[in-house]
TrEMBL record:
Region feature (Disordered): 68-131
Keyword annotations of the record: Cell cycle, Coiled coil, DNA-binding, Metal-binding, Nucleus, Transcription, Transcription regulation, Zinc, Zinc-finger
One cellular-component annotation, GO: nucleoplasm
Organism taxonomic ancestry: Eukaryota, Metazoa, Chordata, Craniata, Vertebrata
Function field: DNA-binding transcription regulator that regulates endothelial cell proliferation and G1/S cell-cycle progression. Specifically binds the 5'-[AT]NTNN[GT]GGCA[AGT]-3' core DNA sequence and acts by modulating expression of pRB-E2F cell-cycle target genes.
Pfam families named in the record: THAP
PROSITE patterns tied to this protein: ZF_THAP (PS50950)
Protein name according to UniProt: THAP domain-containing protein 1
GO BP annotations listed: endothelial cell proliferation
Extent of Low complexity compositional bias: 79-100
InterPro entries recorded: THAP1/10, THAP_Znf, THAP_Znf_sf
Main location group: nucleus
Subcellular location: Nucleus, Nucleoplasm
Domain of life: Eukaryota
Length: 131
């Protein structure tokens, strides 16, 4: 089975340090509120958020990471993501919007064509052997 590449649920980045949802329920709820706006009833426990969505003060080893002596950032206990946009420091309307949800409708063309047909015993007919 191929290895799954994890990406940030907010921006889709996979090259930075990724952080899983915390185990503590109240803290996890705050993370989900930041990600979705309103915590969903059902969600994947494997959601990750990249380090771009945290302030430098949220990390225990930010200075060592900046200098290049460590390769992964470590979050301080109780840290919650707080930066929606990673491209600019100017607030915009897209910062408050949720990530796009991709849906399908019955009017969408099929993703691949299939030429198979369903056959039943009635369609195939009975196989009798002649004498």
């Amino acid at each position: 089975m191929a290895e799954r590449i994890r990406t940030c649920i907010i921006c889709g980045n996979s090259s930075l340090t990724l952080h899983f949802l915390p185990n503590e329920k109240q803290l996890r709820k705050r993370w989900l509120e930041f990600i979705f706006g309103r915590p969903p009833v059902y969600y994947s426990a494997w959601l990750v958020v990249c380090s771009d969505h945290f302030e430098p003060s949220d990390f225990t080893n930010y200075d060592a990471y900046s200098s290049g002596s460590v390769s992964k950032l470590s979050l301080k206990p109780g840290s919650v993501p707080s930066r929606r946009s990673t491209t600019s420091s100017q607030p915009s309307t897209s910062e408050t919007s949720l990530p796009p949800v991709h849906t399908s409708t019955q009017t969408d063309p099929p993703s691949r064509s299939c030429r198979a047909t369903q056959l039943s015993m009635g369609t195939l007919g009975h196989r009798f052997r002649s004498k």
